[in-house]
Amino acid sequence: MTDVARLGFIGCGTHSTNNLYPALKYARCRLAAVCDRDEALARRNADVFGGRAVYTDADAMLDGEDLDGVLIVGPPAMHWELGKRVLARGIPLFVEKPPAPDLAGAEELVAAARANGTFVMTGFMKRHGLTYRKARELIESGRFTPAAGWFRYGHWANTDLPRMLHTMCIHPVDLAISFFGDPTTVHSTLYTSPRGALSLAVTLRFASGCWVQLTLDSSQPRVQERVEISGVMDGDNALIVVDNVQHMELHTQGGRGTDLRRDLFEIDPDFDLADIRIWRPDFSIPNMAQSRLFFQGFAMEVREFVDAILEGRQPCPGTEDTLKAMRVLDVIARNPDSGREIPVPGA
Q1: Most CB atoms within 10 A, among 5, 138, 234, 298?
Q2: What is the helix, strand, coil percentage profile of the chain, to 5?
C-alpha cells in the first residue's frame, strides 16, 4: 500500500471546480493530471489545485500517467464513455451521479469494474454529509431501529422526467437505500403542473417491511430537502429529522407531559431539554471540519474514494451500489403513474 494516491481528474466544469477539486486537499492524494477538452480550463484547474500535468485528451492522460485512481465529473454520457476506458485499464473510478445516462450504461460500468478487478464509486455525496452520516451511524450501531421515512426533495423546474430523475431525484432515492437497505417494490404517482413542471409521489417498500415516502418536486426556485425517519431508540419511540443537510434533530420520547391531579393550579409543566438534541454547523473560523465541503459530504466522499484505493477495498458506496438507485429510477421512468407496487429488478 502506498501512502499517497496519484489521481487524474477529467472535467473542469463549475460543479467539479467548486466542490470536488477543493475537497482533494482533505484526502491522501496528489493531483497528478488534469484533463478537459478546453485546455484553458484544464490549465486553470491545474494551476489552482496543484495539478502536475495538463491534458485535453483522456486517453492520452490514461496512457501517459501512472495513476492510482481517476475522477470523472461531467455529463452522464461522459461518465459512461470515459469511465469504461478507465475501468478497462484496471484503474479505480469515481464518477459523479448519475454514473451513466441510463440503467444499461450503469450496468456496463459495473461489469467493466468486475471484469478488470477494480471498483467504481458513484458520487452520492449526501451519504457522507455530517448529518446523514450521523443518522446512518445510529442505525448501523443498532441504537436506532428505523420503521418508516418521509423524504421531501424539491428543486428548480424540470419538464423531462428521465433528466429530473437522474440529475436530482437520484439523491433522496440513494439516501433511502443507505438507511433502509435494498428496496423491493416501487409505487409512483406523477403530477404535471400547468407550466409543465413535474412532481412525483413515490413509495419504496423494503425487505424488512419498512417503507419510505418520497415527495419529489421540480417546481421550486431552489433546492430544498427534508428527511424524517421514525423508529425506536433505546427501547422507546424516536425520530431523526434532517433539514436542508445542515440541521439535525434527534427526538426521543422524553417526558410525557403532566397529569391533572386535583386542579389546574397544580399543573407544573415539564421543561425537558434532553428529549430533543439539535446539531447544526458552527460557522466560526476555527471549526474547519464544519465547512460546507464537510457537512454537504464532498470532502468525505473524496477521502473515502482515496482511502479505498490505498487500503485495497471497496468504497462506500461501492460498485454494487452503483446500480441500486438506478434500478429504482428505471422502474419510475417506465411507470411514472403506475397506481400499483412494481417489483425492483434484482431485489
Answers
A1: 298
A2: 40, 25, 35
Q: Give the Cα separation of 339 and 151 in Å (integer).
A: 20
Least Cα distance to 146 among 277, 238, 234 occurs for: 238
Cα-only R_g, the chain:
22
Does residue 192 sit within a domain? yes
| Angle 212-122-73 from CA coordinates, rounded to 5° | 125
Question: Could you tell me the three cell numbers for 326?
Answer: 438506478
DSSP code for 168: I
Per-residue pLDDT at 261: 60
Helix axes of 103-115 and 321-334: crossing angle, nearest 10 degrees: 160
Centre a 10 Å sphere on the Cβ of residue 281 and count the other Cβ atoms it contains: 18
Residue 237 lies in a domain: yes
Instruction: Name residues whose C-beta falls within 8 Å of residue 266's C-beta, 6 or more positions apart in sequence.
Output: none
Q: How far apart are CA 227 and CA 250, in angstroms?
A: 12
Q: What is the pLDDT of residue 242?
A: 97
74 and 170 part of one domain: no
The verdict on 98 and 244 lying in the same domain is: no
Bridge partner residues of 198 (DSSP): 192
Q: Which residues of the chain have pLDDT under 50?
A: none
Task: Identify which of 259, 243, 260, 240 has the alpha carbon closest to the alpha carbon of residue 251.
Answer: 240
Residue 310 lies in a domain: no
Parent domain of 15: 5-123
CA distance 154 to 226: 9
Residue 200 near residue 188 (C-beta atoms within 8 A): yes
| pLDDT at position 262 | 58
Write the Ramachandran bin of 166: left for phi over 0, alpha for psi from -120 to 50, otherwise beta. alpha
Which pLDDT score, from 0 to 100, does residue 186 have?
98
Give the CATH number, domain containing residue 235. 3.30.360.10
**Residue 256's pLDDT is what?**
56
pTM of the model: 0.93
Strand, coil or helix: what is 134? Answer: helix
**Residue 179: predicted pLDDT:** 97
